[in-house]
Amino acid sequence: MSDKPRKFKGGVHPNDSKALSASKAVQNAPLLAKYTVIVHQNIGAPPEVTVKKGDVVKKGDLLAKAAGFVSVPLHAPTSGTVTALEKCPGPACISVPSIEITADGQDTWGNCMEPIPDWQNAEPSVLKQRVADAGIVGMGGAGFPSHVKLSPTKPIDTLILNGAECEPYLTADHRLMVEQPEEVLQGAAILARILGLKSAVIGIEENKPDAIAKLGELAGKYNVTVQGLHVNYPQGAEKQLIYALTGREVPIGGLPMDVGCVVQNVASAAAVAEAVIQGRPSIERITTVTGEPLVNPGNWRFRLGTPISKAIELAGGVKYQPAKLLLGGPMMGFAQNSLDVTVMKNTSGILLIPAEQVSQYTSEPCIRCGRCVECCPMDILPATISQAVENERFDWAEQLNVLACIECGSCSYSCPAHRPLNQHFKRAKAEIMAARRKQQKK
Q1: Does residue 223 fall inside a structural domain?
Q2: Assigned domain for 149 exists
Q3: Domain co-membership, 273 together with 390
Q4: Do residue 376 and residue 244 come from a single domain?
Q5: pLDDT band at 3, cuts 50/70/90?
Q6: What is the pTM of this model?
């Protein structure tokens, strides 16, 4: 590990707009009368629902059990009654299965998991099982089951915690590190023990000096190193973070474990600490609610199943009509067509964008300027791949390593011809994977 972080190839520097919420302390959202909990909140198999309409549940009780290794269970965000098992609007703008819980107002904990206060001497297998039982996923956006990452099939010598939070507008991880540094570091130490390591490193972009300072004060107690990073989007992408901290390059098509690394988000680490030390499953998360149209942008701790409409109400509502609503940030977030979408384990931000920042345009032919190639952090050829997709030559796009694309949006952001590059790559990847599945069935 170098004392001086490396700069990865490419990247862009959009206006971070974090000042809207960076200084706002995390507030606890009040208990609602009803929560609509989306069932499938992780990459991998959706969990199997274990409750039925009319069941009485306590806070933290199991709502759905894991359906395989790459799956996680789902737990009740409060005590109450299951009043519906039906579909609700999902973040991908399609209806998805959900569990509606009408709260009893008591917010009573059920018989969850026994705390493991002496985690320093607990068996790594016990700690890893606790992570799985708590339903913890990557809370930076991907939603990948954390216990799967903690089960590498290759030797690991480095644990990295991702505190970069490079996406513009988002400050949820920033506030977590400032306000709950002990939990983040405890989670890091627990993760290290699971992996059989003695130490860990937390990477934080240098535009968060207060977070670096807060964690730095306590880091030695848990044998954790805090490393400042260059401010360069997408610094928080897994492969770019690994290179910045270790100089190791994850091969195309490879995984972090191929270079001896495991990466976990700081919010996931804090959730691990709560699950192990307090016996609490993953039923809430800190989310940034922000954007110029909002009266009072900030950061809130929401329970799973909180409607986006309620989150916007807590932020004081809007001063004027926004033009777009995103879950996540402006670079990698997903536009929404409903305020009834609810908070999930990977809902890092709720962003309202004003009309003056939303442009409508017609895509033009590529002008061969090369900006997309210069800024691509994965060192692929966005312009050429885009042309392959336009001609539906997905085999060609695959040869040009479109599957290596991390969908950061840097190419689309920098393109003067307004080419929908990121959208082209998403389509190509979907078409390639569909073709592979079809071939496997044959």
Answers
A1: yes
A2: yes
A3: no
A4: no
A5: low
A6: 0.95
Give a yes or no: residue 120 inside a domain.
yes
Q: How many domains does the chain have?
A: 2
Residue finishing a domain among 278, 296, 314:
278
Residues 6+ apart with CB under 8 A from 433: none
Give residue 345's pLDDT band: very low, low, confident or very high (50, 70, 90): very high
pLDDT of 2 above 70: no
pLDDT (tens digit, 9 = 90+) per residue, 87-105? 999 998 899 999 999 999 9
When pLDDT is cut at 50, 70 and 90, the band that residue 264 belongs to is very high
- In this structure, what CATH number is given to the domain that contains residue 118? 3.40.50.11540
**Average pLDDT, whole number, for the chain?**
96
* Domain that residue 156 falls in: 114-278
3-state secondary structure the chain: CCCCCCCCCCCECCCCCHHHCCCCCEEECCCCCEEEEECCCCCCCCCEECCCCCCEECECCEEEECCCCCCCCEECCCCEEEEEEEEEECCCCCEEEEEEEEECCCCCECCCCCCCCCHHHCCHHHHHHHHHHCCCECCCCCCCEHHHHCCCCCCCCEEEEECCCCCCCCCHHHHHHHHCHHHHHHHHHHHHHHHCCCCEEEEEECCCHHHHHHHHHHHHHHCEEEEEECCCECCCCHHHHHHHHHCCCCCCCCCHHHHCEEEEEHHHHHHHHHHHHHCCCCCEEEEEEECCCECCCEEEEEECCCEHHHHHHHCCCECCCCCEEEECCCCCCEECCCCCCECCCCCCEEEEECHHHCCCCCCCCCCCCCHHHHHCCCCCCHHHHHHHHHCCCHHHHHHCCHHHCCCCCHHHHHCCCCCCHHHHHHHHHHHHHHHHHHHHHC
The answer to whether residues 382 and 270 belong to one domain is no
Closest of 22, 296, 305, 327 to residue 172, by C-alpha: 22
